[in-house]
Design brief:
- This protein is mostly helical.
- Helices cover 78% and strands 0% of the residues.
- It has 6 helices and no strands.
- The longest helix has 58 residues.
Amino acid sequence: MKTIIALAVVALIVLFFVAQYNRLIRLNVGVDEAWAQIEVQLKRRSDLIPNLVETVKGYAAHEKTTLDAVISARAKATTASTVADVAAADGMMTQALRGLLAVAEAYPDLKASSNFLSLQEELSTTENKVAFARQFYNDNVRSLNTAVKTVPTNVFAGMAKVSVREFYEVEDAQSRQAPNVKF
């Protein structure tokens, strides 16, 4: 009888270890999946930009500085790899797009263009998806980081090769400022 009880206790301990290990792995995979969603949405936004820039070029050819800023931000966004670099490039892209859309406000013909309106709607939808993907990623990072730092899962973090992950933060101090459009 004592042997059965001892085996049952050992089995419960093993099941506990396996459950904690698997929980950490699931959380880590969830963070990876959430990061992939951010990349998908940023790629979608990046793919829309050349069309938007070309449409605006036709109406506002002398807005070279604004168009160049958007193109430059897009180039940086496509080469960023770490969470911090992607977040910084994302912030630059957001600012550049705000400037581009502010330029569009100055051109009534452009604002009325069905092509521009369609691209603007696509961009707006994509921005919403990017915001959702950022939040989803940060929610997953919070869950993983909490598990990695709390007992009992912190004991298993090393064995599972899971560590604290970086939050997605866009430091965009200018986001509260209106874009400056000069003619």
